[in-house]
Amino acid sequence: MAEKLAYLWPEVTLFLATCAVMVIGLSPSAAVRRLCPLISGLSLAAAGIFAIGTTPTLADGAEGLMPGMLPYAKAIIAAVGILIVMLLAGTVDRGEEEELAAGVRKFDPLRLTSGEFYAFFLFSLTGLMLTASADSLIWLFLALELTSLPTYVMVTISTARSRAKEAGVKYFFLGALGAAIFLYGFALIYGGTGSVHLGEIHHQITLQMAGDGLNGITLAGLLISILGIGFKIAAVPMHYYTADVYQGAATPVTAMLAFVPKTAGFLALILLCSAIGWHYGETGHALPDTIRLLLWVMAVLTMTLGNVLAILQTSMKRMLAYSSIAHSGYMLVGIIAGPGATFTESGISAVLFYLLTYGVMSTGAFAVIASLERTHAERTQTGELAYDEADSIEAIRGLARAKPLLGWSMVICALSMLGFPLTVGFFGKLPLFTSGIAAGELPLVIVLGINSAIAAFYYLRLVSYPLFDEAGDEAGGFITTPMRTRPAVAAIGAVGVLAMTVFAGPLMGLAHDAVQPKLHDSDAPIADEAMPTEEAEPVAAK
Amino acid sequence: MIATLAQAGFPEAMSGLTLYHYLFISAVMFVLGLIGFVTRRNLIVMFLCTEMMFQASGIALVAFSRFYLEYTGQVFVIFVLTVAAAEAAMALALVVLLFRRNESLDGSVWSLLKG
User: Fold this and answer.
1) CA distance linking residue A428 with residue A431, whole number of Å
2) pLDDT at A524 over 80
3) Which of A234, A338, B49, B84 could be joined to A242 by an S-S link, Cβ 3.0–4.6 Å?
4) Is A232 domain-assigned?
5) Are A306 and A325 in contact (CB under 8 A)?
6) Edge-to-edge order in the sheet of strand A478-480
7) What's the per-residue H, E or C state across A441-493?
8) Left if phi > 0, otherwise alpha if psi is -120 to 50, otherwise beta: which for A331?
9) Spatial contact of A175 and A231, defined as CB atoms under 8 Å apart
10) Which of B34, B57, B86 sits opposite A187 (nearest CB)?
């Protein structure tokens, strides 16, 4: 147990910050309350630094299945987490704080939710980092639940509007269903292999496959848990909630939903699949046919359905929700391809790199939407103040001329999400293609190619509306929000996309190192040097 | 029947019950929970259905734990119960919130979000 602490310092840091934020969020002084997002951001930066310093070379038996993944996964979680916390800053209690400042209302700690809001955000990221460290099914289950449970509350309290409550309820109920499904799968995996430790499960499955194939209980367990985890990554057939929840939540929380549960789901999938099939390294063998088939069908349906439905949307948040479903489909290709000797052949490093890429570009795009709002707050039926956010795509017509910073950020992020050549989205998608081809999944790669073309239809609307259109009536009604951090996140997202395009090579190298079987000591200094370029940027911008 | 018992590894004292009986019950509970979740519209009943699915996993875990004569599965169940309790707290909070706004526990009343 004690040796596990050595690589859990990032989580410990976040947990301590969570406790601090929960208390000071109730302070009667507005200046102290405003420290919450700052403390959250600083603790994430500290967690990121601790994560980079982690050397996952542990005694045999104490290590997880993919120890090299820890520092990389935690560092990208911290980096994108800082962007998201800047975006979240000031989301809840906005009307309440204004009324307090104006002296309309007296201070009442029961009416303030900012303490819980940031604390839940940090809890969720703690769970996300714990998912990366998981070495047993119990740990994995608890970490996934710790990631999800706070997000249900965050969606519900993100704005005073009724639609946030509706979104929260939908998200919670379907989330509980997803959790029940993968838990049943975990129970069956335990039954089929006799262990909850991923390393031991891997050993048992290898023995079974060398004998007369997987036994029925193990196979059923693996299929059911992959389906259940499909909820976290919003993969078909567990995608129903996505559009409604993304639209109903306040936009900063939507940006969080696009990154946090998806990353948790993919980390869990990588761990599960590495327990099933890959001896990551040269001796790797593919996934069993049934599991490959399930993932294959999920991947094809997820990207096709996501892209086709995204074309039909007029709401930007729904459009990005379906695009987020489609991106999950793309990443499933990497999971099916599995690891390989070089970066271009390794689907796992492609997925890890794509998670970072997607996190930065989708946060940037959502930040643009979050930066646009109507001038006046309205009162909801329960008497709270709520600001009307931009949602319809009409709101970004002519944005590049009216508000160049936001307009160009949207253009850059949308082009990158489309995978336009010479953007980081392109470099992220390329290894998914090449690894698929290397794994002999040509039909899947063709579907991926067709889908990238379909995606152009709606991403190009996000590009052409701000660039080439005149501002319509609808666009005139929106102003840049007075919260300075939101446009800043949009700018950082766009600059991040450009910077990551330039540094794509070293970042891909890091993603590839992350999936190597053992990190040798000689590899550690490389990780120390290269990571800060990407890590320092959000911190410096603060 | 004795042969099945020996295969399943249960001591003789549990005469007549094998691992498969427990797994059958757990599978039935899981499927009933799933069907209930999909067909019912009352939010509390829907939540109870997910709880039933959680408990189905609990039964399977305990049965496997007994089968392997070790405690890991039972430890897992304790964690599952804790998480289920946390979820129940959240579910009730959400249901109360909804009831105050809509005066109804029918999930289909909520239809602001469509498209």
Assistant:
1) 6
2) no
3) A234
4) yes
5) yes
6) A385-389, A372-379, A478-480
7) CHHHHHHHHHHHHHHHHHHHHHHHHHHHCCCCHHHHCEEECCCCHHHHHHHHH
8) alpha
9) yes
10) B57
Give the CATH number, domain containing residue B78: 1.10.287.3510
Q: How far is CA A518 from CA A287, A289, A435, in A?
A: 21, 28, 21
Confirm whether B3 is domain-assigned. Answer: no
Q: Do A176 and B91 touch (CB under 8 A)?
A: yes
Number of structural domains, chain A? Answer: 1
Of A218, A227, A229, nearest to A195 by C-alpha is A218
User: What domain range includes position B46?
Assistant: 17-103
DSSP label at residue B78: H
Q: Is residue B28 one of the residues assigned to a domain? A: yes
Return the bridge partners of A136, or none. A197
Tally of domains within chain B: 1
Closest-CA distance of chain B to residue A154, Å: 12
Other beta carbons within 10 Å of A455: 24
Which residue, chain included where needed, has tokens 């009933």? B32
Asked whether residue B11 is domain-assigned, the answer is no
pLDDT in tens, chain B (115 residues): 444 444 555 455 455 778 899 999 999 999 999 999 999 988 899 999 999 999 999 999 999 999 999 999 999 999 999 999 999 999 999 988 888 887 777 777 666 666 5
- pLDDT tens per residue across span A343-370: 888 888 999 999 999 999 999 999 999 9
pLDDT in tens, A300-323: 999 999 999 999 999 999 999 999
Nearest to A190 by CA among B17, B63, B8, B10: B63
Q: A279: which DSSP letter?
A: -
Within-domain flag for A518 = no
**∠ CA A122-A124-A126, rounded to 5°:** 70
pTM above 0.95, yes or no: no
C-alpha distances in angstroms, B27 versus A152, A220, A376, B9, B57?
28, 12, 54, 20, 9
Coil, strand or helix at A214: coil
**A166 contacts in B (CB within 8 Å)?**
110, 112-113
- State how beta strands A385-389 and A372-379 pair: antiparallel
For residue B33, is it within any domain?
yes
SS3 A372: strand
Q: Which of helix, strand or coil describes residue A506?
A: helix
- Collect all residues of chain B within an 8 Å Cβ-Cβ radius of residue A313: 115
Residue A95 has pLDDT above 90, yes or no: no
Among residues A409, A125, A119, A363, which one has the least CA distance to residue A251?
A363
Contact A153 B90 (CB under 8 A): yes
User: In this complex, which of B53, B83, B114 lies closest to A184 when CB atoms are compared?
Assistant: B53
